[in-house]
Queue: 2 jobs
Job 1
Amino acid sequence: MEDAPPQPSPGIPLDMSAEDFAHHFTAVTEWITRYLAQAELYPVLSRCHPGEVASGLPDEAPDEPQDFESILDSFRRVILPGITHWNHPAFFAYFGITGAAVGVMAEALAAALNVNAMLWRTSPAATELEELSLQWLRQMFGLPDAFRGHLQDTASTSTMVALAGARHARDPDSRRLGLAGRQLAPLRLYCSAEAHSSVDRAALTLGIGTDNVRRIETDHRFRMKVDALDVAVQEDLDAGATPLCVVATIGTTSTTSVDPVAEVAALCRRYDLWLHVDAAYAGAAAVLPEMRHLMNGWGEADSIVVNPHKWMFVPIDCSALFLRDPATVSRAFSVVPEYLRTPEGGAATNLMDYGPALGRRFRSLKLWMTLAYFGREGYQDRLRRHVQLARDFAGWLGAEAGWHLMAPVPFSTVCFRYSPEGMDPSAADRLNERILEKVNATGEAFLSATRLNGRYVLRLAIGNVRTESRHVERAWHLLRSVARDES
Ligand SMILES: Cc1ncc(COP(=O)(O)O)c(C=O)c1O
């Protein structure tokens, strides 16, 4: 006789019971509350060695269910030491992100609802809140009414989606024929030498090819040279290539330089090119009337990306993509099999039509809650503080022998280096590498570096909502004392 198939165990709650959930969630909430209040007690940069976290955990999933306390214990003992604390107020590397308290709560609510906002009907609120909060953002930034926005996970995806729209506008048949069947000459993209690598990623993802990204030289302030851009476009036309799109940046990753977007927009009009503006970090500064001039010309773009998860304190991931003509992007992406047809038709937006992913998180909840919580004035206050802190830091550098500001400071990021009088530039490169390593090893601050004009340069980027002047002062103190010890 054959064995009876295994039967489900009777009497086991299918998910955690409500009583257990209330008990454990209270412990989790208490932990988060303490963590957010005391994040600065942790070393900013994780001190883990490669493989350490994984080797601290079983290398196979358990057969038996584990109790939640032991799971939480592993989180504390093994996982936490492997965390680099982006929520630390002295996180000054790259561009900081903050999980503001309100955003943490929004994420918990979104996780509880766990909706998939692929279609309007799969959660009308998720779609409508996304459209509404993007409208709020557009108004806060002073962008023209013509733009409609939606969310992507990251600026890299937003830029890729925008460029797919650009290609569709130029060559609608590429959607059907793919790369192999395309009859057009190679498409060309243009961006400055300082533009983010997401442009290259978009080119390789879309099959445009990284060789077809032309990086245009920059001036002494790291801004795209529009006359060089003009020459490049003309050269490509003469060679029979197809210029497609210019990506101009407001707030480049290394120095936060601002391309002359209005001039680039005029050139794009002249050559009938799509203009995409990458304002992933610095676009947030448009909430400040005194900074609006830095956004000059972005209202003429075809697409703009700003990451509220960068300088607007919304927990990662939250990237806003504004489109002048969303229909072009939806025509580039929309694929509606029978099982996804809905009766709403054109009366409702189906967000699955605006990018490569079908399933979508309820990202707009954290955006909407965070925008509502801080309000326009709350953002203005915090961003002004950051800009002022960066200016203070730049001022301290200027007043101290051997320290040099290496780029203008339009926003809240400072590029600098230590190079005592008479030191060979390559020796100064190595000295700054050591300074960075030593300062980061203190665990009290975390900075990153870049290269400008071939020289190694330190970067201090202020963008965490909890950063106070004492954190910047401490970083400056550490930098000076390490520089003294190392030289
Ligand atoms: C100017 C700029 N654009 C794009 C990106 C990519 O952002 P994401 O990580 O959201 O893809 C960055 C990242 O720092 C950036 O600085």
Note: The chain has a mean pLDDT of 95.
Job 2
Amino acid sequence: MGAYPLVGLTTSASVDAYPERAYTNAAYVMAVQQAGGIPILLPPQLSVVAREELWRRLDALVLTGGGDLDPARFGEARHRTVYDVSAARDELETDLTRRALAEDVPLLAICRGIQVLNVVLGGTLYQDIPSDLRSPIEHSQKERRDQPTHAVKVQEGSRLAEILGRLEVDVNSFHHQAVKDLGSRLKMVGMASDGVIEAAEVTDHPFAVAVQWHPEDLVAHDRAARGIFRALVEAAGRSALRSLR
Ligand SMILES: [Mn+2]
């Protein structure tokens, strides 16, 4: 590893569209850079060789936000609101998440990412919060992406609490799905006032933190959001030194 850890960022992929595209919000790229990491985009179109070679060099992984995971991955038929399902993205992210878990590679899972991590560990999802839960909170906010709209209570003693430096944070919210049954090895560490799980950690891993909100869009004005990316990049540096990955 050089002075700057390499941080892989998964991307979205267009589904049934021409031309086929791979893309993500630039905020992820900038948040990783601001924290001292080098972002490497990981589109679902990577070849087997490219995936292997990039994985060997990466010091950390970020699962980014995006469309819905195929509910077949947790044994359910699709609710009518499920959108933008990409089999290629589901496969790549499932594979890389398993590797990060098995090889103790630092992992930050954002929005769709907490859902991917949960399903990889055997958990399930609410496929549509408005139909599944009667909640007074609007988890698909209409406000700007850098605008927090609901609070999250953070579990005392959790890694996330240590990273954020507080037990309550105001977050932005752009999800119509949420964690239902927690997967094995996962601990709930953040919850909205309506009971929706907003953060989780893998208990027996050096750094696997998952949040349902979008800290990458908050870093300009929110020290706690910057702290999440700084903690990931620091863990990436330690992990690279320890394992000589
Ligand atoms: Mn939310």
Note: The radius of gyration is 17 Å.
